[in-house]
Design brief:
232 residues, 13 helices
């Protein structure tokens, strides 16, 4: 593997380290070098984060998303990350960085993460499976289940289960929705075009949801969100 020498690293960052280059955390190395416009090899970008670096990032994530990744009811609601599909998780981090998805807080968080750290975080949260927080109106669950499983043929809305799976646990680029906070789902669907798919030259799976989100009424969105909120 090509190594950046200590003297070169000091010159690049304008810093002098008391410790050798191999003692510099991989996250700092990757971000600082990239910020200077220097391209790293795929091997260097794939350097796995140390256990200490990963734990530090997890503690930061947990400040908002909670230790078990179950999310928080609030204004705005903070989403559940537990059990999320790795491919979807990583794509969303890249979307924040590339501004395909607009979120000022997550942009500031994501653009400091190397690809290796993004994967490490995705794998960690994928392995969590806490009970859903719940709290959605239970009287809406039956109607939401019907929309999720059958869609709305008259409105040209396909069943949600086609992409997200019969148990709403997602598949690759399609996210897990089971156990997600209903307030979060409602907020995202009602504001889909304002946050997602902001770069027409870099279309992703969010484009699939654009017409669907616009075709659902608020009442239908609230029902689907209630159903998903209780799914495990």
């Amino acid at each position: 593997m090509r190594l950046l020498q200590f003297s070169a690293w000091s010159l690049i960052c304008g810093l002098t380290f008391a410790s050798p280059i191999w003692a510099v955390p991989a996250e700092i190395l990757t971000h600082s070098v990239q910020a200077k416009g220097i391209k790293l090899t795929k091997l260097e970008l794939a350097i796995p984060p140390s256990a200490r670096d990963l734990q530090a990032k997890l503690e930061y994530c947990q400040l908002c998303h909670q230790p078990s990744g179950q999310g928080v009811r609030g204004v705005p609601p903070i989403p559940r990350l537990a059990g999320q599909q790795i491919e979807y998780f990583m794509n969303q981090l890249r979307a924040f960085i590339e501004r395909r998805r607009l979120h000022p807080i997550m942009f500031n968080v994501a653009h400091f993460l190397s690809p290796a750290m993004q994967r490490a975080l995705a794998e960690h949260f994928r392995g969590l499976n806490p009970k859903p927080i719940g709290g959605a109106p239970k009287e809406l669950v039956a109607a939401g289940k019907k929309v999720y499983e059958e869609g709305l043929p008259d409105a040209d809305v396909p069943p949600c289960a086609l992409c997200h799976g019969p148990e709403a646990k997602g598949n690759g680029p399609f996210p897990r929705l089971a156990g997600q906070l209903n307030d979060y789902i409602i907020n995202k669907l009602l504001n889909w075009g304002k946050e997602r798919g902001q770069d027409p030259d870099k279309r992703d799976t969010s484009a699939i949801m654009q017409p669907i989100a616009h075709s659902l009424t608020k009442t239908q969105i609230e029902a689907v969100a209630a159903y998903l909120n209780y799914r495990e």
